[in-house]
Amino acid sequence: MNAQNITAQNVTVIGLGQMGAALADAFLSAGHRTTVWNRTPGKADALVARGAVRAASVAEAVEASELVVVCVLDHPAVRELLAPVTESLRGRVLVNLTSGSPEQARAEAEWAARHGIGYLDGGIMTTPPGIGDSGNMILYAGSPALFAEHRATLAVLGDPVDLGADAGLASLYDAGLLGLMWSVFGGWLHATALAGADGVAAGEFTALANRWLKTVSWFLGTYAEQIDAGEYPGSDATIDVQVATIGHLIEAGEARGIDGRLPRLHLELMREAVAAGHGGDSYARLIEAFRGK
């Protein structure tokens, strides 16, 4: 018997969409005894062929394992499926990897606590093909004791990151990190279109863009310290200077027929800061605009 089998745990996965199926597959690959349920039973066929146990009902799925993972469309769907089996869940650990808001996660945690159900809320920071890769994060929030107890099992899905006892933090981080991703995508697409207008291939430009992002990450660390301190010294580059620089970006885009809405938004925020007397501050000062101050 290998080490994986020695520590094998009974795990249930409820919901076998692309992500749920990937979660169940990772548990199976790690040697965990995996029970699966899906509203459409046929979606379990491939997993059952690999050794998973197909549950005939949600109740049967829950009763098969001490650790129950649910990954469905949304939080109302979670409650619809699990409310009828509340008593069966009592004393077990529910790991909710369904996307939702921090408020929904906290409500689910309160519901679980009222019924004696252990609860962890999660945010999956990858797509289904990335499940099982320790280089990808999965965020967890809720009972630190439960997280520690089941960390090794959850680690087969990806690098488990503990955000602490507030069950809403995984969803909060998830939303914020996705917002960061979309902003980076938007900036990269705009820049790639700009360079491409002069015949630069996307791959060629992106090689330098990836190198530049390492420098940008250094700025983020510096600016985070300023934000936490509430002070924004413009010792690296002031907003005044960046207003002039972003003008060059907008002009270059206009000359090439590139949509300039994204850089104009940044320019608008910077001009507002300058008008308020903060032109000599760093770019981090713009957090106050997002805070509505």
How would you describe the overall organization of this protein?
By secondary structure, this protein is of the alpha/beta class. It has 13 helices and eight strands. It has helices spanning 3-6, 18-29, 45-49, 58-63, 75-82, 86-89, 102-114, 144-154, 169-196, 202-229, 239-255, 261-275, 287-290; strands spanning 10-14, 33-37, 53-54, 67-70, 93-96, 118-124, 133-142, 158-162. An eight-stranded mixed beta sheet has the order 3-2-1-4-5-6-7-8, with helices on both faces. β5 (93-96), α7 (102-114) and β6 form a beta-alpha-beta unit. The chain is elongated, with a radius of gyration of 24 Å. The N and C termini lie far apart (61 Å). The model is unreliable at 1-6 (pLDDT under 50).
Average pLDDT: 96
Side by side, the strands of the main sheet go 3-2-1-4-5-6-7-8
Q: Beta fraction of the residues?
A: 5-15%
Low-confidence stretches: 1-6
User: What is Rg?
Assistant: 24 Å
Number of strands: 8
Concise structural overview:
The protein is 53% helix and 14% strand. The protein has 293 residues and is of the alpha/beta class.
What are the SSEs and their pairings?
Elements: H1 3-6, E1 10-14, H2 18-29, E2 33-37, H3 45-49, E3 53-54, H4 58-63, E4 67-70, H5 75-82, H6 86-89, E5 93-96, H7 102-114, E6 118-124, E7 133-142, H8 144-154, E8 158-162, H9 169-196, H10 202-229, H11 239-255, H12 261-275, H13 287-290
Parallel strand pairs: 1-2, 1-4, 2-3, 4-5, 5-6, 7-8
Antiparallel strand pairs: 6-7
